[in-house]
Amino acid sequence: MTETELTETGAQGRRSARPVREPGARGRCFDAAVRAYLVRHPEATVVALGEGLGTGFWRLDNGRLNWLTVQPPETAAVRRMLLPDGARRRTVARAVTDHGWLDAVGEPQRGVIVTAPGVLMRLSPPAVRALLAACAERFPGGALVFDALPRWASALARRAAGPAGGRRPAPVRWGLDRAELPRLAAAHPGIVAVREIHRPDFPARYRHRIPVLRALTPLVCEVRFAGARCPRSASSAVS
To answer: Has residue 152 been placed in a domain?
Structure first.
């Protein structure tokens, strides 16, 4: 994994170097989705759910965006210590399932894109529905990018997982097959499109030639929300 050094201009005009780790294949899919959204909404807020000590801000900063990292309180304190808040980025100490973090997004009319790598798969199906509904209602014209394991893989991960707690990550609780993407669009009336994001460096002519491999690999999806608020509803698409 390579590292480069980027700089950020702080509120006082001081410049400080920050290490920026180049993402892997999955991370490049997330970055591509964020960059594409920022082309359309250059002053948008990027909400990074469960980012940990990720350095996406320094990779993707266009000089105009705002960045919000949402972390549980116990890890938010560590991030603030190692990566202190800046003029256009800050950390919010909230659990992903505590939708109070949505209130921290200022000026959502400028655009909002939420990234959730490794997050939704560790939520219960009702919690996934609730998160999609909350974002669709609060962020009109926004988007949410997440990754998911195929259902067979998520079931295998649940069986193989040891007891939760300590340093163990939360167990995988939700899976999604590629064939279910059209149904996911019906999870809330505010969802207007769902698409798979392919690796930017993977030639398109090979994507559909290895169906078995596609069935075995995780997928990265972008959910787009309507530009107007819609009433909340439930669906069996997330189950």
So the answer is: yes
Number of domains in the chain: 1
The model's pTM is: 0.81
Contact status, residue 21 vs residue 44, Cβ threshold 8 Å = no
Distance CA 226, CA 229 (A): 7
Specify the pairing of strand 219-225 against strand 191-196. antiparallel
Which of these, 48, 18, 203, 169, lies nearest to 112 by C-alpha position?
48
Domain CATH code at residue 181: 3.40.50.150
Is residue 189 within 8 Å of 133, Cβ to Cβ? no
- Domain extent for 92: 3-9+18-160+174-225
For residue range 100-126, list pLDDT tens digits in order: 999 999 999 999 999 999 999 999 999
- Measured CA to CA, the distance from residue 110 to residue 44 in angstroms comes to 5
| Residue 65, CA distances (Å) to 106, 116, 134, 197 in order | 12, 18, 22, 22
Q: Report pLDDT digits (tens) over 15-47.
A: 444 556 666 778 899 999 999 999 999 999 999
In this structure, is residue 166 part of a structural domain? no
Quote the CA–CA distance of 42 and 98 in Å, as a whole number. 28
Q: 187-233: per-residue pLDDT in tens?
A: 899 999 999 998 665 555 445 555 545 555 779 999 999 985 544 44
Do 224 and 192 touch, CB atoms closer than 8 A? yes
Single-letter residue type at 8: E
Distances in Å between the Cα of 175 and the Cα atoms of 53, 55, 209 are 25, 27, 23
